[in-house]
Amino acid sequence: MSVHFVAEVEEIPEGHRKIVQVGKRSIGIFNIRGEYYALLNYCPHYGAELCKGIVSGTTMESKVYEYIYGKDQEIIRCPWHGWEFDIKTGCSLFDEKVRAKRYEVIVQEGRIGLVLGASSSEAKGEQ
């Protein structure tokens, strides 16, 4: 496990994102209502820079002629072909097996860190 501190919390206000480079990896960090999430900046479809896509919400499961909107600011749409992914989980909206690579994020003393190669419990020192 390794933690790479890549930004200060002030750099990513709520509803914004920042794309950082960690070694060969380009990673997008998103602030959704004060919580941080990170995705590899690579769409599993054809490799577009996923984290540069539009962030929005989606329609939720509902009855016929009923429209329920949800996940506001939690969905990212690939800028090339429109594939949509849940920023919090990395799962695509059309098939849970299709996922964007996500990374654990930790915040320590106002700094945002990306955990590479371990689960979040390991990163926080939990056993």
Automatic annotation (TrEMBL):
Source organism, top-level taxon: Bacteria
Keyword terms: 2Fe-2S, Iron, Iron-sulfur, Metal-binding
Domain named Rieske: residues: 3-114
Entries under PROSITE patterns matching the protein: RIESKE
UniProt-recorded name of the protein: Rieske (2Fe-2S) protein
Species in which this protein is naturally found: Paenibacillus spongiae
